[in-house]
Amino acid sequence: MNVRRRLIPTAALAGAVALAATALTACSGTAGAAGAEDGKLDVMASFYPMQFLAEQIGKEHVKVDTLTKPGVEPHDLEITPKQTAQLGEADVVLYLKTLQPAVDKAVAQSGVKNVVDAATLTKLEVHGTSGHDGHDAAAEEGAADGHDHSHGEAGEDPHVWLDPVKYAEIAKGVGAALEKSDPGHAADYKKNTADLVAKLGALDTEFKDGLKNTASKTFITTHSAFGYLAERYGLDQEGISGVDPESEPSPARMKELQALSKQDNVSTVFFETLASDKTAKTLAADTGLKTDVLDPLEGITDKSQGADYFEVMRANLKNLQKALGSK
Is the dihedral of CA 197, 203, 209, 213 positive or negative? Predict the structure, then answer.
């Protein structure tokens, strides 16, 4: 496989979950004591994957708002002063540090105390797309256009929600945090977390079985967001550019991908719903490949291939099976 991986040292999961829970200031009694006016716990999520967890685990006990509105590319989000003020008023803030620098800054400025950083609830890794001559194509693109498209000091990949196993680990931490912040409904949060984790386990099994026997293991995508998914299911992600879906690839990288598509029996170039498909179509036209959608699930819009996380992930699975030649 061409995927490079380096584990980022973090606390063990159990310790991280406990840390997330204890980091929250417990409300006295139920959510009504410190929550929204309707008695619900007021939760602010940074973007869709965090919003989905809060809604699935909190259900009727929470009021969930999101900083990233549908159709907005999360990496490009700019926070308004009004949103920073809303952060400070929330009972709980759920975000994923390093994914959205504007959110990181706003959370720090808001003074909010009840914060859950999903990046502390699972092990983050560094994923790079290595060319056949050994260079890191994603890093090269960052240098070529003058931008650093890595995330965090160590360049860790934040797209953990695309791995159902890691997403389940984060769900457990979020559940523990909601139990701590709203002990009056702890039993419901615990049950809802268990139900969600079970559904994610079933999704993991679907991906394992569905991608076990394929004619090819390599897929090309405009957005290098699928490193965790590739690692989990034995696939090889080849990004046209780095983690920035709008960055233009170098002519050398395009030529390299043309050769790779022939060598690794690649049939399809994937693009995403929240970014332009121009680069994917250019490569496809030059190589005779097809194009299709592989959704990084950073937001749900009317263009999404499903109404929620599970529907879009199953659409991704079908598109991967079709592109890779599932046997």
Answer: negative
Identify the CA nearest to 135 among candidates 272, 2, 302: 2
CA-to-CA distance for 291 and 314, rounded, in angstroms? 18
Taking phi over 0 as left and psi of -120 to 50 as alpha, with beta for the rest, 46 belongs to: alpha
- DSSP 3-state of 47: coil
pLDDT at 271 over 70: yes
Report the chain's mean pLDDT, rounded to a whole number.
82
- What's the one-letter identity of residue 133? D
Name 243's Cβ contacts closer than 8 Å, sequence gap at least 6: 75, 138, 149, 150, 151, 157, 223, 224, 225
Is residue 21 over pLDDT 60? Answer: no
Which range of 164-168, 240-244, 262-266, 271-275 scores highest in mean pLDDT? It is: 164-168
Q: Where are the beta strands (DSSP E) in the chain?
A: 3-7, 41-45, 62-66, 92-95, 115-117, 125-129, 218-221, 236-239, 268-271, 290-293
Q: Which tokens hold the place of 190? A: 């615990």
Q: What is the CA radius of gyration of the chain?
A: 20
Q: How many CA atoms lie within 13 A of 57 on its CB side?
A: 30
SS3 65: strand
* Sheet bearing 115-117, strands edge to edge: 62-66, 41-45, 92-95, 115-117
List Cβ<8 Å contacts ≥24 apart for 36-42: 36/63, 36/91, 38/63, 41/91, 41/92, 41/178, 41/181, 41/182, 42/89, 42/90, 42/91, 42/92
pLDDT for the residue 35: 54
Question: What is d(CA 317, CA 175) in angstroms, rounded to the nearest whole number?
Answer: 27
- B/e letters for 4-28, b = 16+ CB within 10 Å, e = fewer, are eeeeeeeeebeebbebbbebbeebe
> In which element (H, E) is residue 226 found?
none
Contact 27, 91 (CB under 8 A): yes
